[in-house]
Amino acid sequence: MIERKGKNTIRIKNGVAIKGYAAAVGKKESEGPLAAYFDKIYLDEFCGEETFEKAETHLQKTAIQTALKKAKTAKESIDLCLAGDLLNQCIGSSFGMRDLKLNFAGLYGACSTMALSMALGAILVDSGAVSNTICAASSHFCSAERQYRFPLEYGGQRSPAAQWTVTGAGAVVLEGSGSDTPVISDIIFGSVRDLGIKDSNNMGAAMAPAAAQTIANYLKDTHSIPSDFDMILTGDLGKTGSSILIELLKDEQNLDISSVHRDCGTMIYDLSTQDVHSGGSGCGCSASVVCSCILDEISKGNLKKVFFVGTGALLSPTSSLQKESIPGIAHGILIERKG
Amino acid sequence: MIERKGKNTIRIKNGVAIKGYAAAVGKKESEGPLAAYFDKIYLDEFCGEETFEKAETHLQKTAIQTALKKAKTAKESIDLCLAGDLLNQCIGSSFGMRDLKLNFAGLYGACSTMALSMALGAILVDSGAVSNTICAASSHFCSAERQYRFPLEYGGQRSPAAQWTVTGAGAVVLEGSGSDTPVISDIIFGSVRDLGIKDSNNMGAAMAPAAAQTIANYLKDTHSIPSDFDMILTGDLGKTGSSILIELLKDEQNLDISSVHRDCGTMIYDLSTQDVHSGGSGCGCSASVVCSCILDEISKGNLKKVFFVGTGALLSPTSSLQKESIPGIAHGILIERKG
To answer: Using H for helix, E for strand and C for coil, what is the string for chain B?
Structure first.
């Protein structure tokens, strides 16, 4: 049962169950504070494949297959997969789908893709259009670096606000409603917000305004206050973007989320020792953090209500060369444990 | 009300109404046989913008705004836009969304994007998650050519199986169910099929196997035969891909769709005089043909049941350089007039 709350929020009354979830990551992520949560760690950045792009496909396939295994769901019984990534033409996902042979709807939400896929997936399951779905997203430091910035061999210096693209993938299996699993119960699709940031080494700043807008809209729609949540979790604002978010919400909305705000980009690495500057980024950042640590802690009952806001910077290298600013977007989902 | 039919088909019992639709195209398209159907024609390939990429955004925005106007729906009342395009990181759509300020879910289905957006949009509306939605897709010859192939200035020769990327965009407004408008009533999401074609100048051949699979699955799920439809319409197989589709369905499935099959890629240009080789292609091909001629003829009652199969080639220039074959996908929707 779906109902609308306020102007933008979609409420799924019984929630859609996250029956299984998994995350696969690379070496640097395995050296960070969340290491123990990940299902699969690849120390080789090629994951045994010939290219970085194929390595990314490998990561996403591993996350999907592991999530299916943990959900005790046969691949053949899956009605649809919703997935995306950062590579041009989303080949990280589509080549994985070729091997997995799942019905496939491709998404592009930049780094907000995991939240977007879970948002659409939950609605599709609740509507009965599909009995279950897999939602997945991935990124890879090496494939992103050479596509968006410089060849790795160039060894370019990184600016202080720059973020480190996470080598990682996450996947969830959504099916039915459930009292003994985490469920997705609220969904809010964001709109583009662009305050004119043009520095593609400062994506946190470009995405923070969109995150602020989505959080403010959601709290208004649901008559909630920040302390109603155990966590308001953004995808990959990093240290720079996170402080902008906190300030924007204070200034524009008189909302203080500082006590419950966390950001996947600052959680996945140790910012003081891992040389990642402002933190992690990429579709794989929130995908691998949500599909490991966050869902684990919700499953254990240590977290009860997490409002997860996937953040995306909808630029391309071409738009930056054409001197365009960076459109940000943020999609939110409430993940909670009802039982 | 949604129900599942067979293994893959989703049936929306009352159908979701296509309340408005529009197509905006370029000069070459205005010289083809469908010229009279288009809402807006741009003789200038820049559409008054500074770059081809911005011109593509302009086309998509025009299609969306015109569809809204024809649907008599205020932009402010739209709950969600589902859109995509072929440009890296889908900037054709995202920069349009920045101006239109609509809640936005980005999609990537290569040239199948229009069918994908209408499929997801119809389910979202029927479920009550949104009260209405806009679905849109676009492509532009000049932005695609320089991204996928060669700089225009190079003047490269084209192979006989090559297709011409359509400069065009289409958009539909979906809302409620309706007896006096075309409705979307069946949906089938496809899975990737790849028979090993590696020639990116022969995308029709790469996509035909996926189209054959989706058509065969749909006919099986719904216990239908080709003559139950006024038209089985593929997105952009072109002349080469269309003959492969007809043959594959005969050989593999003993199905003869030749009397009802049409292809947007062969309809939009005059193949004998317009020097487009195998026909049109791109997200904008099926988007502009469906959102003009096809929906016009269904509205007039000249066509009653059209099974529209959007076809996509999920390659990237990088995957081709890495000697990968081309994964094809095809999503189908039944568009009909119930009243």
So the answer is: CEEEECCCEEEEEEEEEEEEEEEEECHHHHCCCCHHHCCEECCCCCCCCCCHHHHHHHHHHHHHHHHHHHHCCCHHHCCEEEEEECCHHHHHHHHHHHHHCCEEEEECCHHHHHHHHHHHHHHHHHHCCCCEEEEEEEECHHHHHHHHCCCHHHCCCCCCCCCEECCEEEEEEEECCCCCCEEEEEEECCECECCCCCCCCCHHHHHHHHHHHHHHHHHHHCCCCHHHCCEEEECCCHHHHHHHHHHHHHHHHCCCCCCCEEEHHHHCCCCCCCCCCCCEECHHHHHHHHHHHHHHHHHHCCCCEEEEEEEEECCCHHHHHCCCCCCEEEEEEEEEECC
